[in-house]
Amino acid sequence: MTTTEAVTKVPSPRPAEAGRSLGARLAEIVSGGLVRVFLIVVGLFWLVPTIGLLLSSLRSPQDMAANGWWTVFTKPSQLTFDSYQKLLENSDIANSLLNTALITVPATILVVVVGSLAGYAFAWMEFPGRDWWFLAVVGLLVVPVQVALIPIAELFGRIGLFGSILGVVLFHTGYGLPFAVFLLRNFFAEIPRELLEAARLDGAGELRLFAQVVMPLGGPAIASLGIFQFLWVWNDMLVALVFTKSGTQPITVALQTQVRQFGNNVDVLAPGAFISMVIPLAVFFAFQRQFVSGVMAGAVK
Q1: Which of 29, 101, 107, 228 is the most exposed place for a label (fewest CB within 10 A)?
Q2: Measured CA distances, 66 to 71, 96, 245, 264 (Å)
Q3: Global pTM?
Q4: pLDDT score at 40
């Protein structure tokens, strides 16, 4: 071998697989298709109760008493919408759905609006005792809802709000505001000060600054708050059980009453429970992108 050949001949590098550890190769295998298959299986497993409730709501009481809901895959003729027709004919369940909407929508809107205004004030406005007031709001987060039930019930009874939809809305609004103020204040505080100062130099007042600058930037956080509040109020049973009466009960209390009075009334309970569950799911999936954006924005900041 000549000197030139010895200089120009470069030993070939070892394959990449040979230099990798066993843990790295296992991590690559696990992070590939195997994990996706596992997550799909887990997701389908968690959907089984929802699918079972849906199929049960589409079966007659006789079929439900005879066999399980999975038999519809071999006998699809069992499926019928008669249970939903009976649900609409049941005045208690139908009125409770309307009451649930009348409670949930105003309680969500009030928490979002008031919480946004208070969060902006605590983040960017100067007033005496601002930090101490914010600490007081944060301290309210640790107060359990059960502690406030009896005092607020006595107060509402004295002023004539006990048993009304307005009383339930005010309770949910007041109890949801501490978390709303805490969440939105921390999010609004991350907005660049230069952006707000530039808007003030252009002549924007506080309300215009809040509406045209802060609100669009805080859209993901506000959407996340709205979803949290909507789901909490819609699925609430404890507050509604204490503060409502027969004409103002939401769907959660109405279904519980049906179980207590008519234990075999499954043709009404199954579709009612499914509607009570599917509406929050629809709201979540409708605002899923904004919810994920708000969570990711909070994580990055």
Answers
A1: 29
A2: 10, 30, 36, 13
A3: 0.76
A4: 83
